[in-house]
Specification:
374 residues, mainly alpha, three-stranded antiparallel beta sheet, 8 helices, 8% strand, elongated
């Protein structure tokens, strides 16, 4: 069914393929961490080789994300999975958690690779190709943590000061309003989907206990043996179908919803950075208007800031359209997958019970016929 739906603007030719796999646990005297193998295959001329294999830990992915944000403050950088989980550090190294994170990191890198601008970022190339010691050396050349913290503080301060920017274009006000609604809806959808999955898991566990009871009952009900075994078989088949439906939810819907919850936070940050650039221009313009009597006015600085605002606006406009199209594609694909899984689940369960009823009805009629014979 999914093949019947065609989405526009899908990339026809890819020249960069990235795989994140093979997680390994590392234990040192001061910490325990996981590294992942990152395999890159490419036909791009700017790469010295056509294939690379490196190992990266989570903090390397964090470094890449921060460098992309510094280089492209008004582009929508794909989100990373959270570093910690609330239930405790033990689960952080469970197989399920590691696999969930691996998939998210794989998605993160491939989102960047598919982005028309981010894919050519030099730090991204270094992340994919440099050995561990080379990457460590390169990290030391970039701005430090306090520099990044300072930028964040200035962004928040400028957005708070005066209650916002004066000359924000209507488009970005509309985007802000859209994201507030989107954030509410996607969080509610995620919350309900998580609850459905939890209830489905509870139902599955009950079903696993329910079937064997009928089988054990056979020992004390000789006349009901066939019926009890038939019911037990049906429950077992429906239990497997339920397990498959749960897998569909956990693989196709829940990760998509969670990723876009993180995307809503990313977009909030992007809009704040755009407003910061706008506020800086507005501040200079106000200062200029108060210095009309002075001969030397910083008109060149104003011009540079106007160019900076225009570039920031154009970058966000283009990336917003692209992000929204990708979001709609991902949501449609996830919802269609859930619909298909549900149809298959109910058809499978219905066929199972109908087959049982047919057999029981035939046996019942045969029994009645034999009783009527002298």
């Amino acid at each position: 069914m999914l093949n019947q739906y065609k989405f526009e603007d899908e990339p026809e030719l890819r020249d960069l393929f990235i795989t994140v796999d093979d997680p390994e646990s590392h234990i040192t005297a001061i910490e325990t961490f996981i590294t992942y193998r990152v395999v890159t295959k490419t036909s791009r001329g700017e790469f010295d080789s056509s294939e690379y294999e490196v190992r990266r830990r989570y903090q390397d992915f964090l470094w890449l994300k921060s460098r992309l944000e510094e280089a492209h403050p008004t582009l929508i950088i794909p989100p990373l999975p959270e570093k910690f989980i609330m239930k405790g550090m033990v689960e952080r190294f469970s197989d399920e958690f590691i696999e969930t994170r691996r998939k998210a990191l794989h998605k993160f890198l491939n989102r960047i690779a598919e982005h028309p601008t981010l894919t050519f970022n030099e730090d991204f190339k270094i992340f994919l190709t440099a050995q561990a010691w080379e990457l460590s050396s390169h990290k030391k050349q970039g701005p430090g943590l306090f520099s990044r913290m300072g930028q964040t503080v200035r962004a928040v301060a400028s957005s708070v000061r005066g209650g916002g920017v004066k000359n924000r274009p209507d488009m970005f006000t509309d985007i802000n309003d859209y994201m507030e609604t989107f954030n509410q809806k996607i969080n509610l959808l995620d919350k309900i989907s998580q609850r459905i999955y939890k209830e489905e898991r509870g139902y599955y566990c009950e079903m696993k206990e329910y079937g064997p009871i009928h089988t054990l009952w056979c020992a004390s009900e000789e006349d009901l043996v066939d019926s009890l075994k038939g019911v037990a078989s049906c429950i077992d088949k429906c239990c497997k179908a339920t397990e498959n439906r749960m897998a569909g939810l956990s693989e196709n819907l829940l990760p998509v919803l969670h990723e876009y919850i993180l995307y809503s936070e990313v977009l909030t940050g992007v809009l704040k950075r755009r407003d910061q650039i706008q506020a800086e221009l507005d501040s200079k313009v106000d200062a200029l208007s108060n210095k009309k009597a002075e001969k030397d006015l910083p008109t060149e600085e104003i011009g540079n800031l106007e160019d900076k605002v225009e570039c920031a606006n154009n970058a966000l406009k283009a990336d917003w359209d692209r992000w929204k199209q990708n979001m709609q594609h991902d949501m449609k694909t996830a919802f269609l997958s859930v619909a298909e899984n549900n149809i298959h689940y109910y058809e499978q369960c219905l066929a199972t019970w109908e087959s049982f009823l047919t057999c029981q009805t035939v046996d019942l009629h045969l029994g009645e016929d034999s009783e009527e014979k002298p």
